[in-house]
Amino acid sequence: MKVFVTGGTGYIGSAVCLRLKKAGHDVQALVRDKAKGAQLQSPGVKLVEGDLANPAGYAAAAYGVQAFVHCAQDHGPKSVELDRKTILNARELLHGKVGATFIYTSGIWVLGDTAGVSFDESHPTNPIKLVAWRPAHEQLALEMAKEGIRAVVVRPGIVYGARGGIPASLFGAAVTQGAPQIVGEGSNHWPLVHIDDLAELYVRLVERAPAGSIFHATDASTHTLREIAEAASRAAGKDGRVTALPLDKARSTMGPFADALALDQKVSSEKARSELDWRPRHEDFVAEAPQLFADWQAAQ
């Protein structure tokens, strides 16, 4: 299958490109700088230089594809506008193509606080301020199904593994500051997913997810933030030491992102497991923390 992936050199996008290529697909990756895409070119991923702000610049490359996978996220002041623009452009590029597929990357923060209950895809969204715009974009993507496009939304948990992801900051703080820092006391739960397992799910979404469907991508763990941070601290040789930053102080320096880190969430991915036979190989950050730390160090 010919697949076009936005955010080709990003943390999620690069992993998705490589896994799709390994699965035998013809993959094109949208990148801002081809020089940064060497790790993709070596396995045979084709690089398309451009950015989300200029759809005309990548339209020719994406026109003949069977699947458009949107992994990119611009972090500038026009991020929301560019995200919506990309969805609309994908719809235009895929319109009228039999079997065309669109995969939209959302996230579990659209669910808001789950109050100790494990939320599946049937629960309504209640997004925090940081992602208040995203449910509307999910719906915009899913509406493509009315035009015969196999549109699918994926909501990854907090991604970890290899060189990046939010949990990597816990390793970084442990090394540079002597202890990971958490927002609040850490009794809130973080739903996680390993980057390799997430990339594997994207392959299954591209190949066979039903049109108009939503899938959560989380491992089976239900650890609290403090348990995760303590495991990261031990793995880094800091004896489980953790520092806590009160939420109000975190808001003054991090803004709305602080509330995302303080969310208490339990999220089920049973739908992906039962309908797509998705079987994550990494199910427990705490148990795997020593190896994850070694992987993180190797990727620096």
Q: What features would you describe in this structure?
A:
- The chain is of the alpha/beta class and 300 residues long.
- Helix content is 40%, strand content 17%.
- It is built from twelve helices and 13 strands.
- It has helices at residues 11-22, 38-41, 56-62, 79-94, 134-142, 168-177, 195-208, 225-235, 247-254, 257-262, 270-276, 285-299, and strands spanning 2-6, 26-31, 46-49, 67-70, 101-105, 118-119, 150-156, 158-160, 181-183, 192-194, 213-217, 243-245, 266-267.
- A seven-stranded parallel beta sheet has the order 3-2-1-4-5-7-11, with helices on both faces.
- Strand 4 (67-70), helix 4 and strand 5 form a beta-alpha-beta unit.
- Helix 1 packs across helix 7 and helix 8 (225-235) crosses helix 12.
- The longest helix has 16 residues, at 79-94.
- The chain is globular, with a radius of gyration of 19 Å.
- The model has no long low-confidence stretch (mean pLDDT 96).
Q: What would the keywords be for this entry?
A:
single chain, 300 residues, alpha/beta, 7-stranded parallel β-sheet, two-stranded parallel sheet, 12 helices, 13 strands, 40% helix
Task: Give a concise summary.
The protein has 300 residues and is α/β, with parallel strands linked by helices.
**What is the helix tally?**
12
Cα(first) to Cα(last) distance is: 33 Å
- Content of β-strand: 15-25%
**Rg to the nearest angstrom?**
19 Å
The order of strands across the largest sheet is 3-2-1-4-5-7-11
Level of helix content? 25-40%
Order of helices and strands: EHEHEHEHEEHEEHEEHEHEHHEHH
The beta-strand count equals: 13
Q: Structural class of the helix and strand makeup?
A: alpha/beta
* pLDDT < 50 runs, ≥5 residues: none
Overall pLDDT, averaged?
Answer: 96
The backbone outline, from C-alpha atoms, is globular
